[in-house]
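Follow-up to my post from last week.
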Amino acid sequence: MEKAQTNYKVASFAGVETAGRMTFKDMLDLSGSELSVNALPAGVSVPFTHWHKRNEEVYVILSGKGQFYVDGEEFAVAQGSVIRVSPAGERCLKADATSPLLYLCIQTEANSLVQATENDGVLAASKPSWL
Amino acid sequence: MEKAQTNYKVASFAGVETAGRMTFKDMLDLSGSELSVNALPAGVSVPFTHWHKRNEEVYVILSGKGQFYVDGEEFAVAQGSVIRVSPAGERCLKADATSPLLYLCIQTEANSLVQATENDGVLAASKPSWL
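User reply:
Got it. Predicted complex:
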């Protein structure tokens, strides 16, 4: 843990290529999401297909190339791909034979977001030294 | 939009360095989070400090180096940094003078996650062609 104060906490996913998987819910006291960063070596697949009871997942491909599976369909993903999977979607993914795959997975309670940033964000009075 | 079916939808943040900011809530029909990918050119700051009424934010630094501000404190962030900010935290960030900053921001309703993956995930019967 690099730093923690009343309203924030900081960690890092540096070293995840060696660790394989790092999860941040407990590390950062997340209350609205579960977040993981995952590294699949070239040619390696998540070893199972799964779905969720309540949670929506968003996968963000940070680097590499792979194949994604949902409900009997397969499609290519690559750095920059962002995939929303509804709870009932049966999902799996693998890294291409010639490329490792680094990806982030965000898990949230489906239909839990009450309002988005245009109504939820408020301009603050305090400022950093550079503004 | 690359692909959409009953239980999933796919987009991409490719080109965000030119666009500056891409948001995925509407693009992917996200129901549990608001997700954006943001590119700050070297030396550029988010031009304001803000806090949130209800939403927790998680910032993930995808590449580059910068400075993060919360509640009067400033600290360095870099590729791999993951920062949780509670709704009340007054926050801002900027790219270092010599480095652009690419980051992801996840917004969720604070305290909305009911259960995490160990209880929410269920093994599925269907499998991709490679398993």
